[in-house]
Amino acid sequence: MADFRKLALEFVLSDDTDRQAIIAKESASAIQSAPRPSNPVARWVESIRPWMPSANEDIMEDGEDGESRGDVIARSKALSFLAGTLDNLDPTFLKPDQVSLLVAFFGSMFKVDHKAGILAAARALHRTASMKSFQPQKGNDIISSICSLGDDFKNQVAETRVAVYELLDHLITTAEVANDLQYQHGAISGFITDLLQLCRNERDPKCLMIWFKILKSLLADYSPAQEVVDEIFSIFSAYFPISLRTSQHPSGITADDLKTALRDCFSAHHRVASKAVPYLVGRLDQGDSVTVNVKVDILKTLTACLSRYEHVQQGIAPFTEKIWSSLKYEVRNGEIEDTINATLEVIRTIAKRLTGDELRTFALSVQRDCLEDLANPIYTAASGKLLISVHSAKPSAFALMIAPSVTHVKENLRHTKSPEHTKNLLILLNSLLELRQALIGNGTKLTPEDAEGFKATEPMLAPLYKQAYLPSFQSAMEKGAQKEDVAIGQQAIKGMGLMVCQRAAQSGLSMRPMLPEATLSEICDDLAGVLLKTPEQHAADELRVNLVDEAVLALQKATMTYQPALKKLIEDSFRVCDPYLASLERASTSDSIWTLEQLIPKLAYISCSELPSQEDKFENYVLLLRVLLNNLQSMLDVGAPPQVWSVIASGIQMTMRYYRDALHVSIPRSTAPNFDDKRFHPDTWVNYVATRFAELPRVDGEVPVAADDAMDIDSHAKSANNTSDEVHGDFILVSLFVVRQLYRRATRIVSYADDTEISLELSDDFASKDYDVRTLEDRYLHLIGSMATYVIREMNELEQTALLLNEEVVTLFRGDDEYLPSVSAQQHPWASSQLRDAMLRTFSPQAYKIRNPPQFPISGLSQGRAIVLSLGVIQPLHPLAIQRLVERGTAHQILVAGLLSRDHSASPRSRHIVSAILTIIANKHPIDKLSEIVTLAEKQMSFVIGDGTLSSQAEKETAFVKFEASRPPGINPDMARANLAKPVYAITAGVLRRYTGNSFKQVLLAIHQGPANRAIGHVLARNFEVIFAPYQSLAKDYFGVVKPLWLQRAYFELVKPMLNMAWPAGSNSPDDMLKAANYSVAVLAAVKHIPFAIYEDDTEDLIRLTLCVVRYLPSGGDVQAGLGILEEVARESPDRIKPFLKSTIEACMSILTRGGGQSSDDSPWMLVGYMPFDHSDVAQAQCRCLVVRLLGLLPPQFEHRHLLDTAAQVRRMLSRASGDAVREVRKAALLARAAWADVN
To answer: What is the DSSP letter of 1053?
Structure first.
């Protein structure tokens, strides 16, 4: 049998709360497991007797074991032992008589033991009141016991009071207890009066939160007499307005929490309205003595009351006139936006709650005061806000007030006092139309009564276009219109768009326009005229730009409602191309290009920035794509300049982007892959789109498949259910269909290598030999490549692999095309074969020899200009799609041929794109585990960092020397060898971002040794930054695989060892100086792309390194990298630069005084051609700008006594820099001069 006295003693003696909790659990378990006849509950309560006060509290007696019975702390712990045991006791265990005994025992603590018993008693009673056997009538006994504390309650600590409040809250909000309290006390509610007397002086925030909740319950859930209600109101109203001395109490309670809790008291029940509303309005009428924050609090409290009082006739209607009389001036004469908005919300709430005659009476009061003010320009805007607040409350309020409001607006528009007056009247009219659109349109269903009320006002609204809007619109469109006329015209344009959007009133859902079709067409023609009337003049005129922007917004909303207007607008916009297409002599297209550049982005926004409300969500999207593709085809057919192609292509991509964003807002895409989607099939998706969206043209010359031969469209596709998978899938396929056509139009199949092979080259559209024209053509190719990237990026990996997009990297959407040779070449080996068979041959990595590497599978014909199209496909592929490229061997071919630079073209631009492709493959697939590729990279780098010769065995395996010797004359052999490192660097850039093992260690070691090469070390050092430069193609949006700490690892494995090599090895010989300079260049080239936190520990060495580079190298890219690092250090940790401050300032001034970008010191170690030639002096200008910015950072970071020695000289240098030829340098110099002006 458990010894409860022993447990109680251990609990009292312990100061460990965890141990006390364990003891309480043991005690509860012992009670529940003991036999009932042993009366464990009585023995448990009796166990704390040694610590309870005797009959004579003032006499301290020694009890058993030397414990003092008068010890307050020990007694508190003993009572806590009982409370803790109850917390762990099964709520169904105790019998009713035992619960009653506990209630009596703990209730007595409130009378006899104010020092130690209150907290434990409150906790114990809280738990006891939750017991199953608790009798509701005992709640009154507990409350009576608590009230017996009297004035001693406020002397309890906050923690104790919180426990008491929580007990009261539990009792008062328990339904059974509440019913018993009301039965015992009736309307007199004597217990409430006692509680109010007990707690009236509470100040602790945590206690107040519970006290306010209790007061709210007393008002809302009980039925006290009015006298008691008044007393309750006097208690909580005394706290209004409430605030905290600090922004937040230690308990986490904020001032807003207290305001909300107190607000709940005011709005608890309409029985308190007779006190609350006059009180709040009276506080508001105190005028300037009320601060803005208090005024807003009052208004929000008033709104809460009006929103929550259930009985409108008792809680709201008697006070509406008084509220309106007081609040209208807050808007009429108000200046503070927060106060005005809060006031309007109160008025809106009144109108929302009132009905019938009461609403009509209130509306008449508002109209009587506001409509007359519309004639006064001073009060027009404020009166409009008041009117709108009532109109917007609900449909019945709008229908009741719209007629007189519109009538007065039209009347005042005939006699306006000023342009601002006219503008404010139109703003009010537009707001009314916006409200009507929100109340009738947007899927809102009207009741028959509301529909009848709206319908009665339609004849009065219909003439607004010509009566109110058209005169102002015409004035704004006149040549020479003033700024005020244009501002008014903007509001007129907005109103005209809103007129088109108005729906006819009918019961239920309204879809029919309010205006006749002729009027709708006339309004849309007027709005379209703003765009189409000399758009080049609008672009040059800021006032006209404002009108055009407003017209675009209006047309966007109008065409969503009136679909025929969009088709006409698009057709009219592209009529600018007709004169050029119809002319036999091709005139200049500069005007057409300028017009299209202005119109197409606006058309894309109008058509696709929002999904149509009708069932077919693709109607507008396909309509604009059709027109754009038709015009692009026409321009290509007649040989228009490439600028026109680019403008239309960018418009197509803009259309896709607008539609995609609108789609994701309206119908978010499901993240779960749809394995049953039959639309994504490589053999049928094209025919699916061509059949489903037959209006899309075919600009690539491909003959559409007959409908009988087309894929069987799934029933879900035909029905257009507009589910997430359905709509997003169709968007992707339609957009990819467009991209496919543009790719196919740009390419053609060609035979080469003496008619033994077939590949792709650019089509006849790209036949120009002029360099400038070819540059513009390449811009167009880049645009359609980026368009492919954008569309393919929208696919998940299941969709990409299902469509075999990995193949399109090579075939460029011509994989199914057959090669049809001329009659003379019928014996061609690839005659009547599909292109994919010729260009995507299965490749075994083990079968190739470096001497005879595979052919680069991506076409390099047309000087490699088409490779950018392959980049557009491969850049957004998921790693799984890249894996498919590897499994077929195509990736091996690309990597091997790309590493060896054995593609068709060696143009710098194509080589740059090939490097980007290598980086993408190396990042999205673990090629460091492909031993053949790693071995080739090792051998290639070994050859690069060598002396250009190989052993006979190595040459026999690789033929590096033979191949380099066969390059065209005029190419420096050393530079050719250095260029072989670029693809290795490109692959390394991809590998390091996902690298985890050590299989690439030898390649990294060779890269580390590169700058030591005397002949080409400086080239390898500058190219070293390729590894660390940021790559957009590896960003998260393009599914790149980037380890969070890759930069840290790369820095410590590659850069930090180089930092130790950046100092001459014990001598200043030319070779040592050259080697140190190369490593310095490599380190700076890498570190400029690395965050400061990574290289922070090496900051001092990097500063020394930068100062050496500035001293020994001319102003160029190397010095620029070092200065960028110095600027970063000065921003992030200026103390690091403090020991080098004087040297840093001298180095900066030396750069500003250099001429021709040359160093002032002779550098005998520097090789001929060591510094790349800066044709445009851009690097020098960037160095000057960095220097000036760096100097400007110093005065705020350092004490001026450290800068005094050089201040005068720096000021002179900055004065000279203020006249620099480069604007950015001048701008930085002005800021730096201001910083140095205070150094004295």
So the answer is: I
Task: Give the confidence band of 632 by pLDDT, cuts at 50, 70, 90.
Answer: very high
Confidence band, pLDDT 50/70/90 cuts, at residue 904: low
Give the tokens for residue 890.
Answer: 């195509």
**8 Å CB contact between 50 and 6:** no
Please list, in sequence order, all residues whose beta carbon lies within 8 angstroms of the beta carbon of residue 1100, skipping any fewer than 6 positions away: 1136, 1139, 1140
Q: What is the dihedral of CA 551, 552, 555, 559, to 10 degrees?
A: 170
Of 928, 943, 936, residue with least CA distance to 993: 928
Residue 857 · residue 836 · CB < 8 Å: no
Share of the chain above pLDDT 90, in %: 61
Q: What is the mean pLDDT of residues 1208-1234?
A: 93
pLDDT tens profile 508-554: 777 789 999 999 999 999 999 999 886 555 445 777 888 999 999 99
Residue 1144 · residue 1094 · CB < 8 Å? no
- For residue 704, pLDDT beyond 80: no
Q: What is the residue extent of each domain of the chain?
A: 1-53+70-89, 93-110+131-268, 354-575, 936-1090, 1118-1158+1166-1238
* Residue pLDDT, tens place only, 569-593: 999 999 888 877 777 565 567 778 8
Let me know if 1044 is exposed, middle or buried by CB neighbors in 10 A (0-12, 13-18, 19+). exposed
Count other Cβ atoms within 10 Å, centred on residue 854. 22
Indicate yes or no: pTM above 0.90: no
* Amino acid at position 533, single letter: K
Helix (H) / strand (E) element for 509: namely strand 508-509
Mean pLDDT of 1147-1163: 68
Report the alpha-carbon distance of residue 790 to residue 816 in Å, rounded.
23
Q: Which CATH architecture has domain 354-575?
A: Alpha Horseshoe (1.25)
Contact in structure between 1078 and 1012 (CB atoms under 8 Å): yes
Read off the amino acid at residue 434.
Answer: E
- For residue 717, pLDDT beyond 70: no
| Residues 987, 918 contacting (CB under 8 angstroms) | yes
- Degrees, nearest 5: CA angle 1134-1137-1140: 155
Asked if 1138 and 1202 count as a contact pair (C-beta separation under 8 A), the reply is yes
Contact status, residue 1100 vs residue 1041, Cβ threshold 8 Å = no
The rounded distance, in Å, linking the Cα atoms of 1148 and 604 is: 50
Asked if 1055 and 1090 touch (Cβ cutoff 8 Å), the reply is yes
> Tens digits of per-residue pLDDT, 393-403?
999 999 999 99
618/343 Cα distance (integer angstroms): 44
Strand partners, 758: 751
Instruction: Report d(CA 95, CA 597) in Å as an integer.
Output: 87
392 and 398 Cβ atoms separated by less than 8 Å:
yes
Measured from the Cβ of residue 674, the count of other Cβ atoms closer than 10 Å reads: 18
Give CA–CA dist 127/51, Å, rounded.
22
Burial 1052-1061, CB ≥16 within 10 A → b, else e: ebbbbebbeb
Q: At what angle do helices 380-391 and 320-332 cross, to 10 degrees?
A: 140
Tokens 């619960």 identify what position? 99
With 0-12 / 13-18 / 19 or more C-beta atoms within 10 angstroms meaning exposed / middle / buried, residue 948 is middle
Place of tokens 């006739």: 313
Beta carbons within 10 angstroms of residue 640's beta carbon: 22
Question: CA distances (Å), 757 to each of 490, 720, 814, in order?
Answer: 63, 45, 16
Between the CA of residue 483 and those of 529, 542, 543, 810, what are the distances in Å? 20, 10, 7, 57
Alpha-carbon distance 851 to 82, whole Å? 91
The two beta strands, 747-752 and 508-509, are: unpaired
Maximum pairwise Cα distance, the chain: 129
Cα-Cα-Cα-Cα dihedral of 982, 986, 987, 993, to 10°? Answer: 150
